[in-house]
Amino acid sequence: MSRTTANISFALIGIQTLEFMMNKELYTNEANVDLEINGEFAIKSLEECEIACIPEVAFIQAGNPFLQLKVACYFSVQPTQWKEYIQKESQSIVFPKGFTDHLLMLATGTLRGILHAKTENTIFNQFILPTINVTALTQGDTVINI
């Protein structure tokens, strides 16, 4: 794809917390903490030209997550532009990596804020999601089946 992020008009239209878990029994001050983060994309509404960006983070000790959060940020794309990315032959929509990386960066920042708010005044508030190079989380253009 040759189109860039700047060429795609979009708006953030919604935020939803899909999963949240904190378990004090699985956490200890003595063990190292690992961090896993990933992101995925889905069509929220084909007719309304809406895409969901869904980042997820887990803080883990000894292979067990003790703090997890998964959110969805919903974006609408300008309809004439949306149609340009539909691949009828493969029944998919293909967005350029730069565009979806930008959405993932916005959604990850949103996840960071939700994590802070949900852990405020708990022992888990010390776990701040660090800055993430989201471009390393995706490989190439994003293909979503429709």
Short description:
With 146 residues, the chain is α+β, with helices and mostly antiparallel strands. 20% of the residues lie in helices and 42% in strands.
Question: How is this structure best described in words?
Answer:
The protein is α+β, with helices and mostly antiparallel strands. The chain has a single domain, classed as Bacterial Protein-export protein SecB, CATH 3.10.420.10. The protein has two helices and seven strands, in the order ββββαββαβ. It has a four-stranded antiparallel beta sheet. Strands 5-6-7 form a three-stranded antiparallel beta sheet. Strand 2 and strand 3 form a beta hairpin. The chain is elongated and about 55 Å long. The model has no long low-confidence stretch (mean pLDDT 93).
**How are the strands of the biggest sheet laid out side by side?**
1-4-3-2
Measured as a percent range, the helix fraction is 10-25%
Secondary structure category: alpha+beta
Name the average pLDDT. 93
Low-confidence stretches: none
Number of domains: 1
In terms of DSSP E residues, the strand content is 35-45%
Q: Please, how many helices?
A: 2
Radius of gyration: 17 Å
Shape: elongated
Largest sheet, in brief, is: 4 strands, antiparallel
Distance between the termini: 18 Å
